[in-house]
Design goal:
Blueprint (H helix, E strand, L loop, with lengths): L7 H14 L2 H14 L5 H13 L3 H10 L5 H13 L3 H13 L9 H10 L3 H13 L6 H13 L3 H10 L5 H13 L3 H13 L6 H13 L3 H13 L6 H13 L3 H13 L6 H13 L3 H14 L5 H13 L3 H10 L5 H13 L3 H15 L5 H14 L2 H13 L7 H13 L3 H9 L7 H14 L2 H14 L5 H12 L3 H13 L15
Length: 527
């Protein structure tokens, strides 16, 4: 690639274009050219290059550029923090801000929104509250950007009441602030309060826009409140506002989340009849409906549609396709798509590892987990370890499972969740270490749920441990008093162990409590 001598302004426009498109190869070549002609030392060029490398996920390059610039230039600090926060590198943004404070720069209202955004995404409410104090001491609360950033930070940290205090204290409440507050309410599951706020602000002349209404539609859809979704649609119609692709996508996502899968397909058809073209987000939101009910035929139809519409290469669509094929048992198809991906996110990796583990390809699941650790360790999350532990459990790899559980806590600082404990109980129980599994349950720092006790009861049945089965069944009954599952399992265990007296007692108890065990059913669709 050849570059002619141009003005600094022309080069910054070129860098902006490469940043927008994520064109790492061309941007890197331009950077080399700028080093040769000496313009790379310009702070203006450097700021643009930091943004470019951050956009292209080349954080070491961005950091290297930042370190070479004299740290007396405040604009460079602001640019670095802004770039990191804008592209999701929140920990890095906080790190640079801490360094900036050490250099004793005065606090700047321009940099605070970026830092507050990082605090919100990291759920660092303590640092966010300290920054709020800085805002008040410096009189920045009048700034609309700072105010909206505070609302967003408090909302993401789960303290929506503090977000509302900030909103109430704003001298001039504009539409951006209203949308931030509505979004905050929705994020925290208090959608009716958001709706009430919108209605209240209309009385003060603040007119909501489609973004406001779409946030409410999303909130009510996720909350499984179809009546209020209909109410919002009616308001849109009364005001002559046409629902857009985001409106329809929000409804579809909510239906899928609440397992109204057939209604999701129906809504998708209604959307097309209304003349609204779906987006990649619509497709990635609809595909889990096929996965939920293992409907491979519909999943393939959506896959074909996504290819026609040009969505197949989208990262989120491809990840949803992998998840759908894996859950429908088409592991080879899922792996074929996985291998073709040039970029993968956490969901992509997790879906493929889960797919392998749940269909008996446990060795492949562990190998893929190891590959993820080598290639994209930063993307590991709690679900990645759940998938790997599931594979270990199904394959009886006790030592590996125990080491992964410790690795998750000690190296990656992931606090074990109930699903991790259930996997470990299942792992030990399947391997015949039922007493160890029970001891593991007793040492849990959180209260075991029905999945943990269910895993123990299943292990007791498999290995004929009647005494521990009675304990597990009793705990399950406390959690699910109306379910006959644990009682029926214990009844069968008594019968298999020739403990006929106990079996008769259990039968009478089930009859007295009117517990009925229903015959199992399964279904399969032949494609």
């Amino acid at each position: 690639m050849h570059f002619f001598q141009s003005s600094s302004n022309t080069y910054t426009k070129l860098i902006d274009a490469y940043t927008k498109n994520g064109d790492f190869k061309s941007g890197r070549a331009l950077h080399a050219h700028l080093i040769i002609n000496g313009l790379a030392r310009s702070s203006q060029i450097t700021i643009k290059l930091i943004a470019f490398y951050t956009r292209c996920k080349q954080i070491p390059h961005a950091r290297n550029l930042f370190d070479k610039i004299p740290h007396t230039n405040k604009r460079v600090w602001i640019a670095a923090i802004g770039s990191y926060a804008r592209h999701g590198y929140y920990q890095e943004a906080m790190g640079v801000f801490v360094e900036m404070q050490r250099e004793r720069f005065q606090h700047d209202r321009i940099v605070l929104p970026s830092v507050l955004k990082a605090c919100g995404h990291l759920s660092d409410g303590m640092t966010g509250a300290k920054l709020h104090g800085i805002v008040l001491r410096n009189g920045f609360e009048w700034d609309a950007f700072v105010g909206c950033a505070l609302i967003d930070m408090y909302s993401k940290c789960g303290t929506v009441d503090k977000a509302k205090n900030v909103f109430d204290g704003m001298v001039e409440k504009d539409l951006v602030a209203l949308n931030a507050m509505v979004s905050g309410y929705v994020q925290n599951g208090v959608v009716k309060e958001a709706f009430g706020l919108v209605e209240d602000m209309k009385l003060y002349g603040l007119k909501p826009d489609i973004v406001t209404w779409n946030t409410l539609i999303s909130g009510f859809s996720q909350a499984n409140d179809g009546e209020m979704v209909g109410e919002v649609f009616k308001i849109l119609d009364d005001n002559g506002i046409k629902p857009d692709v985001v409106s329809w996508t929000s409804i579809i996502s909510g239906l899928v989340k609440n397992f109204h899968n057939m209604d999701a397909f129906k809504t998708f058809r209604e959307m097309l009849k209304a003349g609204i073209s779906p987006s990649s987000a619509t497709i990635s939101g609809l595909l889990p409906a096929s996965a939920n009910i293992a409907d491979l035929r519909r999943g393939k139809e959506i896959h074909g549609y996504s290819m026609v519409m040009g969505f197949e290469e989208d990262l989120y669509v491809r990840s949803a396709l992998i998840d759908m094929y894996a859950k429908c048992g088409s592991i080879s198809e899922a792996m074929s798509l996985f291998k073709k991906m040039s970029e993968r996110n956490t969901v992509t990796w997790n879906s493929m590892i889960f797919g392998y583990a749940n269909h008996g390809y446990c060795k492949e699941a562990v190998q893929l987990f190891d590959q993820m650790v080598r290639e994209e360790e930063r993307k590991l999350d709690h679900l990645t370890f759940t998938a790997a532990l599931t594979a270990c459990s199904h394959a009886g790899m006790v030592n590996l499972g125990e080491s992964l559980f410790d690795l998750m806590k000690d190296k990656y600082d992931i606090i074990p969740r109930l699903e991790h404990y259930a996997c470990m109980v299942d792992l030990l129980g399947r391997a015949g270490k039922v007493s160890e599994a029970y001891g593991f349950v007793q040492r849990m720092p959180i209260e075991p749920d029905l999945f943990v006790w269910g895993a123990l009861l299943g292990a007791c049945k498999q290995h004929g441990c009647v005494d521990l089965a009675e304990i597990a069944a009793k705990e399950l009954y406390k959690l699910e008093p109306e379910s006959a599952g644990s009682s029926a399992l214990l009844l069968n265990l008594y019968a298999n162990s020739s403990k006929w007296g106990e079996a008769i007692k259990m039968k009478k108890m089930m009859k007295k409590r009117k517990l009925k065990s229903f015959p199992s059913r399964s279904w399969i669709e032949v494609v």
